[in-house]
Amino acid sequence: MNSLMQILALIELSITTSVICIWALQKFSPNPFPFAVKLFLVLLIGNVVFWPLGLGMELPLVAYVRGVTGDLSIVLTLLLWSSLLPSSKPTPIAFKFAIAIIAIGFYPFALGLGMLDPYAWGYGSMAFLLAVLVFAVVCALANCTKGVWIIAIAIIAWAAHWHESTNLWDYLLDPFLAIWALVAFIGMLYRMRRDKARSGYLFRPG
Prior knowledge:
Blueprint: H1 2-27, H2 35-50, H3 61-69, H4 74-82, H5 93-110, H6 126-141, H7 145-159, H8 169-172, H9 175-203
């Protein structure tokens, strides 16, 4: 059973690695890739990183990647995977803002700042689970359906012990997701400030 979970974790990370590679390739392409091309690249890159290729490496490439990153959160994994869908829309800035605020409040205390340890809440705290469900309801009221189903799947994965961790936090948040949200939020503030400066320059007297 443990070996099966290890294989599933490597398959999951292989797909995620493929998606990140496609995102990087897309940056150098003037036109968006068709969905069929993205699917082909996922299969191609996923197989390359999943199967041992020799070259002096005893393990497949994705195993070394997992050794560095660990298991990514379900939220980040699904955000990446859903970006390949033809109907995919940009993640709402409010969702990114919420993740950034949660990360700012979570990591300092989880790393030992103060007496509060929010990471411990992830071990079966009903109050914490209720708070996550309330957050999902807020996403639904804000018409952020992607946030709702991503959170729902993350909770289901936690309940099914999909990853090795039994802490709900590890299914909802990871450092890479936090960095992505913080960078996106800072970028939004920078664009708002830039647009405001341009607007003031265009409409100033004279």
